C-alpha cells in the first residue's frame, strides 16, 4: 500500500505554477526533469523517485498507445494500492486516457496490474 505520495513538495508546486494548462501527467514529467532524484512515493518498504515514476508511467503510456488507446478513452486499471498503481494511473493520463481505478481484493497475485481499455458507450 502506498504510504506517502509526495504532492506537497516544491517540486510539484513549482511545476504547476509554470503553466495553468498542465495536466497531472505533464506535472509528473516536469517534476522528473526538475528534481529527478526527489522522493515521489514511499510505500513503507521502497521509496520511488520522480525519474523512476515518470519512466514507469511513460512505458505504460507507450504500451497503451501501441494497443490503440484513443484520446479520452476510459481505461479500467485493476490494481492493488502500491507504486505500480500510481505508475499505471499516470501512464493512462500520459497516453491521453481517462483512468478508472478498480481495487482488486481477491484471488490474484499482489504484483499483478491489469488494464482493460473500455469501449465508448453507444
Structural commentary:
With 122 residues, the protein is α+β, with helices and mostly antiparallel strands. The chain has a single domain (4-117), classed as Rossmann fold. 39% of the residues lie in helices and 20% in strands. The chain contains four helices and six strands. It has helices at 10-17, 24-34, 50-66, 83-94; strands spanning 4-5, 39-42, 47-49, 74-79, 98-103, 114-117. The strands form two sheets. The protein has a three-stranded antiparallel beta sheet. The model has no long low-confidence stretch (mean pLDDT 76).
Spell out the blueprint of helices and strands.
Elements: E1 4-5, H1 10-17, H2 24-34, E2 39-42, E3 47-49, H3 50-66, E4 74-79, H4 83-94, E5 98-103, E6 114-117
Parallel strand pairs: 4-5
Antiparallel strand pairs: 1-2, 2-3, 4-6
How many strand elements? 6
**Named CATH architecture:** 3-Layer(aba) Sandwich
How would you characterize the largest beta sheet? 3 strands, antiparallel
Number of H/I helices: 4
Number of domains: 1
Keywords:
122 residues, alpha+beta, Rossmann fold, 3-stranded antiparallel sheet, 3-stranded mixed sheet, 4 helices, globular
